[in-house]
Design brief:
Elements: H1 3-7, H2 17-26, H3 33-44, H4 46-51, H5 54-61, H6 65-74, H7 80-106, H8 111-136, H9 139-150, E1 155-159, H10 164-176, E2 181-184, H11 191-195, E3 203-207, H12 214-225, E4 230-234, E5 247-250, H13 263-282
Parallel strand pairs: 1-2, 1-3, 3-4, 4-5
């Protein structure tokens, strides 16, 4: 029996998004290459899975439509549309609140009131993101990451595009706390040369979210190949920077009108920075 055939023997297909996500995490290393590619795409683009057609999704995921069917059946679903219903159910649970806010926003001519509604939406998204991280964060993982970073001679900070404000904040905070660090993101374009100085006595933090910055993936792989311990902050167990990580955190930022506040990520970064400085001080 082939690996894909073995995967198809599933008693009960997950009927909510949380259970589906956990099932994919549990089988991450058992999935054949193409099915793993689909799994990574579905977790990174759940809204597109809910709204798209099999043809459009297959094109975006760079697979054949038949691969989507095999992927669904491997998880115990009758077909791709059966799997798709889980993603649509997730939207039914999530969207009404946003739709109500948007209708309220468009229904008011008062500019100040519109701004207030926007702020409430972003504040609620931030609160939800932090609450989700608090529920998922395991103390032993945080302690392990702090240990790796606290014993480093120099901490390299890797993050591009949306993630750059996070590494810039860590650069500022570590500097104020007396922790030697290097912010990767030079205007002169000499980041590869800077990273070449990293050794196993150092450590690095890489931050990247969907869509993952190719430079961050490249830099994370480069620094890990030098034996430098790497702590990763990302949004999916299928993130391309995870294979290089010694410790990692999954942070999913809730969005409002397509924009994602970085509240949970910054809260985690603050905890890491202060904990690292405190542990270095005690040593």
């Amino acid at each position: 029996m082939t690996v894909e055939a073995q995967l198809e023997v599933v008693c009960d297909a997950p009927r909510n998004f949380a259970a589906l996500r956990q099932a994919l995490i549990d089988r991450k290393h058992k999935l054949p290459k193409r099915l793993a590619q689909v799994a990574a795409f579905t977790m990174a683009n759940p809204d597109e899975i809910a709204f798209g057609t099999a043809a459009s999704i297959a094109q975006r995921a760079q697979v054949q439509p038949s691969t989507l069917v095999r992927f669904a059946q491997a998880l115990g679903y009758q077909g791709f549309s059966d799997l798709q219903s889980v993603f649509r159910e997730r939207l039914r649970d999530r969207i009404p609140t946003y739709e109500e806010r948007l209708r309220a926003l468009r229904g008011h001519s008062n500019a100040a009131l519109k701004v207030g509604i926007l702020f409430e939406g972003f504040a609620n998204a931030a609160e939800h993101s932090i609450r989700l991280l608090r529920d998922r964060l395991r103390p032993e993982v945080l302690d392990n990451a702090v240990s790796l970073l606290a014993q480093a001679d120099t901490i390299y900070l890797i993050g591009q595009r949306r993630s750059f404000p996070v590494t810039a904040y860590l650069n500022y905070t570590f500097g104020k706390l007396g922790v030697k660090n290097v912010l990767i993101g030079s205007a002169s374009g000499n980041d590869p040369e800077t990273l070449s100085f990293a050794t196993p006595a150092d450590a690095a933090i890489a931050v990247s979210f969907t869509p993952y910055a190719s430079s961050t993936v490249e830099f994370a792989q480069r620094i890990a190949s030098c034996g430098t311990p790497l702590v990763v902050i990302t949004d999916s167990p299928f993130s391309p920077i995870l294979p290089s990580a010694n410790a990692w955190f999954e942070v999913v930022e809730e969005d409002f009108e397509g924009f994602r506040p970085m509240s949970a990520t910054l809260a985690l970064s603050m905890a890491l920075a202060v904990a690292v400085a405190e542990r270095r001080e005690t040593k």
